[in-house]
């Protein structure tokens, strides 16, 4: 392992924990190819010490599909996935990054608008209509992305 790979592994370790493959279930999380993924299907074949698990998982940020097989007794990386809500303060005209209000009263300006047209347009439309919006931000393995929103003061 090169120094660069070793450095990456040590950074990754603080953002994940290990769990035996046989205990990871559908709708859980797993790290596949150094990406945080949600398990959409898992099957086990064989028995005893020779059993293996086959995972079908979707990257939680890109939507890319992965398949991964491993011995059922092997430890796998599992990402810490945290969803935090922030109040939406501003969507600048350039449409790149939003301004969010944290629970401590400071602002957070490093979250991009969703790239998919429908959620991005719905969020912009709600903001332009003057709605008070709470934005849910999913974070895992050093990445963050808006994963939902709601109107906190429905009329």
Name the helix and strand elements from N-terminus to C-terminus, one letter apiece: HEEEEEEEEEHEE
**Class derived from helix and strand content:** mainly beta
Low confidence ranges? 1-9
Q: How many helical stretches? A: 2
The domain tally reads: 2
CATH architecture of the largest domain: Roll
How is the main sheet built? Answer: 5 strands, antiparallel
Report the oligomer: single chain
Overall radius of gyration: 19 Å
How many angstroms does the end-to-end distance come to? 58 Å
CATH C-level category of the largest domain: Mainly Beta
Range of strand content: over 45%
Helical content (DSSP H or I, runs of 4+): 10-25%
Query: What is the third-level CATH name, the topology of the largest domain?
Result: SH3 type barrels
Backbone shape: elongated
Can you describe what's shown?
The protein has 2 domains: 77 residues, Roll (SH3 type barrels), CATH 2.30.30; 70 residues, OB fold (Dihydrolipoamide Acetyltransferase, E2P) (Beta Barrel). It has 2 helices and 11 strands. The strands form 3 sheets. A 5-stranded antiparallel sheet has the order 9-8-7-10-11. Strands 2-3-4-5 form a 4-stranded antiparallel sheet, with no helix packed on it. A two-stranded antiparallel ribbon has the order 1-6. The chain has 155 residues and is mostly beta strands. The N terminus is likely disordered. One of its GO terms (biological process) is positive regulation of translational termination. InterPro entries: IF5A-like (IPR001884), IF5A-like_N (IPR048670), IF5A_C (IPR020189), NA-bd_OB-fold (IPR012340), Rib_uL2_dom2 (IPR014722), Translation_prot_SH3-like_sf (IPR008991).
């Amino acid at each position: 392992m090169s120094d660069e790979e070793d450095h990456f592994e040590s950074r990754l370790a603080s953002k994940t924990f290990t769990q035996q493959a046989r205990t990871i279930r559908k709708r859980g999380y797993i790290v596949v190819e150094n990406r945080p993924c949600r398990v959409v299907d898992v099957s086990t074949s064989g028995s005893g010490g020779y059993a293996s698990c086959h995972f079908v998982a979707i990257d939680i940020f890109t939507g890319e599909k992965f398949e991964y097989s491993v011995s059922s007794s092997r430890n796998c990386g599992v990402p810490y996935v945290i969803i935090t809500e922030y109040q939406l303060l501003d969507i600048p005209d350039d449409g790149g990054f939003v301004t969010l209000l944290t629970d401590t009263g400071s602002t957070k300006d490093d979250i991009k608008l969703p790239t998919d047209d429908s959620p991005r347009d719905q969020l912009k439309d709600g903001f332009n209509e003057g709605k008070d919006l709470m934005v849910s931000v999913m974070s895992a393995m050093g990445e963050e992305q808006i994963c939902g929103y709601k109107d906190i003061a429905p009329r």
